[in-house]
């Protein structure tokens, strides 16, 4: 299991497509409560055209769980540290939910390192600080398992759960075994992050993806993000919160089309 020591902590990562020596890099960032395996539906297609770097955000998956509080600045520093560790000057970036929030900050604050950015199921401000504090408190007091069922109901439609019970069960299992403190610290970091004043600084070509039935980040919130970025492409898929899994083929085609379009 590969780890890189970045900013004093171990971050779990995987690289695919490394055999394509001259291919651009694509960095993938996971949602809160998920790990790098959430990108499994995309890896074969993405790694046929890109060198793909994915990682577990600090506090999640197999990465270290340093003491909080965490900040959006730390998230960005972790990504930049990974880029430096692998001598990556510039990369495309694709993030979902919390990963998308990281993408907003990276593109706004560190645009020189970002070629194109995909911001999926996210916004410049996710929910309210009180909601995230409450969720952090529940995780600490009752564990992430207590949040699993309600979270997956927001992530996926009942039709998807019935159609893909093994996929659904695997994702629930990963969520239920997340470190409670790491999850809570990331909740608090999301609650403290408001990037609405920074989105106009994004000049990289951007794609914003939303889910027509997303209850976690309503389409209107993602649309507001798109409206704040000049020249953005906006796509709405028939999905809830994790369209890269629920509508994997459509999501993959949409991202590849955006990343491969000249200009």
Separation of the first and last Cα atoms: 37 Å
Uncertain segments are none
**Number of domains as seen in the coordinates:** 1
- Side-by-side strand order of the widest sheet: 1-2-4-3-5-6-7-8
Mean pLDDT reading: 97
* CATH architecture classification: 3-Layer(aba) Sandwich
Shape type: globular
The helix/strand order is EEEHEHEHEHHHHHEHEHH
CATH topology: Rossmann fold
Number of strands: 8
The helix content, as a percent range, equals 40-55%
The secondary structure category is alpha/beta
Question: How large, in whole angstroms, is the Cα Rg?
Answer: 17 Å
What fraction of the residues are assigned to beta strands by DSSP?
A: 15-25%
Main sheet summary:
8 strands, mixed
Provide a count of the helices. Answer: 11
- Assigned CATH superfamily: Alpha/Beta hydrolase fold, catalytic domain
CATH class equals: Alpha Beta
Could you explain the architecture of this structure?
The chain is an alpha/beta fold. The chain has a single domain (3-260), classed as Rossmann fold (3-Layer(aba) Sandwich). It is 44% helix and 17% strand. It contains eleven helices and eight strands. It has helices at 40-47, 72-85, 98-109, 129-142, 145-155, 158-163, 165-176, 180-191, 219-227, 243-246, 248-260; strands at residues 3-6, 9-16, 25-29, 51-55, 91-96, 114-120, 206-211, 233-237. The protein has an eight-stranded mixed beta sheet, sandwiched between helices. Strand 5, helix 3 and strand 6 form a beta-alpha-beta unit. Helix 5 packs across helix 7. The protein is globular.
């Amino acid at each position: 299991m590969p780890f890189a020591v970045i900013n004093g902590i171990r971050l779990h990562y995987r690289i695919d497509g490394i055999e394509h020596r001259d291919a651009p890099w694509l960095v993938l960032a996971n949602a809160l409560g998920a790990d790098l395996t959430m990108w499994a539906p995309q890896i074969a297609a993405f790694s046929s055209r890109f060198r793909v770097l994915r990682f577990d955000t600090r506090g999640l998956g197999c990465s270290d769980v340093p003491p909080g509080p965490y900040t959006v600045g730390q998230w960005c520093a972790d990504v930049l540290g990974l880029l430096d560790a692998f001598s990556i000057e510039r990369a495309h970036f694709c993030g979902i939910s919390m990963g998308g929030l990281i993408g907003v900050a990276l593109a706004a604050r560190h645009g020189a390192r970002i070629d194109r950015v995909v911001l999926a199921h996210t916004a410049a401000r996710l929910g309210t600080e009180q909601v995230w504090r409450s969720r952090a408190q529940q995780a600490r007091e009752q564990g992430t398992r207590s949040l699993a069922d309600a979270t997956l109901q927001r992530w996926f439609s009942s039709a998807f759960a019935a159609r893909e019970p093994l996929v659904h069960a695997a994702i629930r299992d990963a969520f239920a075994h997340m470190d409670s403190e790491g999850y809570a610290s990331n909740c608090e970091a999301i609650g403290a992050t408001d990037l609405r004043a920074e989105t106009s600084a994004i000049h990289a070509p951007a794609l914003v993806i939303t889910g027509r039935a997303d209850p976690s980040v309503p389409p209107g919130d993602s649309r507001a993000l798109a409206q704040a970025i000049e020249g953005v492409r906006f796509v709405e898929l028939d999905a809830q919160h994790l369209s890269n899994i629920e509508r994997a083929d459509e999501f993959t085609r949409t991202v590849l089309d955006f990343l491969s379009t000249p200009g």
